[in-house]
Amino acid sequence: MAPPRDPEAGTNGINGHTNEHTPLLGSTVRSDDNFVKRHAKEGWNATMSVLTSNYVNVLLVFVPIGIIAGMFEWAPITIFTLNFLAIVPLAALLSYATEEISLYVGQTLGGLLNATFGNAVELIVSIVALQKNEIRIVQASMLGSILSNILLVLGCCFLFGGIKYKEQTFNSTVASTMSSLMAVAAGSLIIPAALYNSFNNNIDPIKNPEQYASHNSSILLLSRGASIVLLILYILYLFFQLKTHTNLFADEQDEEEETETPTLSVWSAGLVLVIVTFMVAICAEYLVDSIDSIVATTNISKTFIGLILLPIVGNAAEHVTAVVVATKNKMDLAIGVAIGSSLQIAILVTPFLVILGWIMGREMSLFFQTFETTVFFVSVLITNYLIQDGKSNYLEGAMLLGTYIIIGLSFYVYPDNEQGKGPGIPIP
């Protein structure tokens, strides 16, 4: 016989939401507790909920160690490694807190929050690098984030999902809409690169510095105008997804909202966002500061660090989430995480950084080197071709992963001194 229910014990609120009486992790907040005791219990519950939200949180121990390493100027490789490891759990906590707030504010505002904080780590690292005028790191990080999502993450989703299921299906209309916008983003990079090569094909920047500077100014003007257009397109895409054509995205949204209830209060989740964002900014500062010394003492280029290493750290939580849902045969959600995140970087974060660089007096542009632009175009082309039929299997996943590995190797052997031209890059 079950014991009588304690009237003071926790109960579930409407739709399963917890109220002030709900026990979390074994600690019950009672109505007869005094103010200090009640809030202390609530704080403890929230803290434990945050710390146990993801297994990668064990790496949080590297956060204070990484900051100490930066403060006391340890060896650059040590500073980079410790802060590199510290950002992994911080990225996971940002993702967790954003999801918690999204459960309170509703679909439209939740979509905007996910767009803002889903790539917060890359954005923070890039803003720090932009402030230090490290244009190469910013551009490589943006391109690397896009490639890691559409090739590495999507490839893993297709591969591991395809191993468990012979063939998986997803909403081809949604995927085509996203991939079409990615093609527009690819065009926004190809046009500045083509214009730059047309301008400066036969110009020596050392012998003709004034003409070279004039052409660079034209590239910056084009980039800033194109960035405004891309930001408008992203706003229209949000309106398209969340307002006028919600029926196209219904299946994806239903899966995302499946019986989820918030664990944290909206204020607790907001506080976590603020604290974690601050910690990411500190770790990013030390991380970016150590890159020049690493480049000088190793064979690793700035481009490889920004294009391969930093995106893997910033997207670690999203990578795991996408693969897990793919193995559960929720391919619409996996596609939304992988391609949706790339889309945010391509037509939201990168244009925003161009505009921010304009405000800060930095020559951040949409002009990427010819090799980088070609890689981006080929990657988008391959991805669009593989998802257009709305079906996936493990072989298609292997193709995407193989492409990513080849690109990673190409950037490992491609030194930074081969990319020393363009806006934001000083004339040697």
Automatic annotation (TrEMBL):
TM annotation in the entry: 54-72, 79-97, 109-130, 142-161, 181-199, 219-240, 266-287, 333-359, 366-387, 393-414
Region (Disordered): 1-24
GO biological process: one example: intracellular calcium ion homeostasis
Domain of life per record: Eukaryota
Sodium/calcium exchanger membrane region domain: residues covered: 77-242, 271-407
Gene Ontology CC terms, in alphabetical order: endomembrane system; fungal-type vacuole membrane
Keyword field contains Ion transport: yes
Bilayer topology annotation: Multi-pass membrane protein
Protein's UniProt keywords contain Calcium: yes
Similarity annotation: Belongs to the Ca(2+):cation antiporter (CaCA) (TC 2.A.19) family.
Role, per record: Has a role in promoting intracellular calcium ion sequestration via the exchange of calcium ions for hydrogen ions across the vacuolar membrane. Involved also in manganese ion homeostasis via its uptake into the vacuole.
Name the record gives this protein: Vacuolar calcium ion transporter
Originating organism: Arthrobotrys oligospora (strain ATCC 24927 / CBS 115.81 / DSM 1491)
